[in-house]
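Need a sequence for this fold. Nothing fancy.
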């Protein structure tokens, strides 16, 4: 049976390009597309794909957190991360979240078919220019590690310019709770204003620049 693939990227041209490559294969079937992290969670639950091509920087919910949630809910799904970032931290966090492959976006078209075949065999795969994370690599001092999943959601929405009331509605919280999360984030990260919080979120790939 063909490999069922879901493409998640907030850029329509990227989705179309990947779709063209994959649909030229006789053993692959693109079953759906998603434009943001929340949509990919919904589509994954509804479509149950074999593989998800996941942009690391998406609105609403970034690719690493979306990967973590999907792997918890649907452990059989293989995730391939597409990213502009090639730092050890980004790669380590993606694999730690459950991704099996990490491709640089600029050259993803050259590696995507090989990556799909490798992850379907349960193997890790990295495109050229990506250094595979070492199991003993110690990134415990990364400030990201001190944040809970809810705090990561809040910081992304804050960085995307949403008000406390809007965030509260999306996350089913009270505006006061959102304000508390935001204050706690600033304290944990050692920043004292929203622009610094936004800068942190972009630098660590939590939200698209």
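Here you go.
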């Amino acid at each position: 049976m063909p490999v069922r693939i879901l493409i998640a990227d907030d850029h329509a041209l990227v989705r179309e390009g990947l779709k063209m490559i994959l649909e030229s294969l006789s053993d692959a079937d693109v079953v759906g597309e998603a434009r943001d992290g929340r949509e990919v969670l919904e589509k994954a639950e509804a479509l149950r794909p074999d593989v998800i091509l996941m942009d690391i920087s998406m609105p609403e919910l970034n690719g690493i957190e979306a990967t973590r949630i999907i792997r918890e809910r649907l452990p059989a799904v293989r995730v391939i991360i597409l990213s502009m970032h090639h730092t050890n931290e980004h790669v380590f966090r993606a694999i730690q979240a459950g991704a099996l492959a990490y491709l640089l976006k600029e050259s993803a078209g050259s590696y995507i078919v090989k990556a799909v075949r490798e992850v379907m065999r349960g193997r890790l795969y990295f495109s050229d220019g990506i250094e595979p994370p070492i199991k003993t690599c110690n990134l415990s001092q990364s400030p990201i590690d001190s944040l809970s999943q809810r705090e990561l959601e809040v910081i992304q929405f804050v960085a995307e310019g949403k008000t406390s009331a809007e965030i509260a509605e999306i996350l089913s919280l009270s505006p006061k709770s959102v304000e508390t999360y935001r204050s706690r984030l600033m304290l944990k990260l050692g920043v004292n204003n929203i622009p610094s919080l936004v800068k942190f979120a972009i630098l660590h790939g939590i939200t698209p620049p």
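For context: The chain has two domains: 3-126, 143-203.
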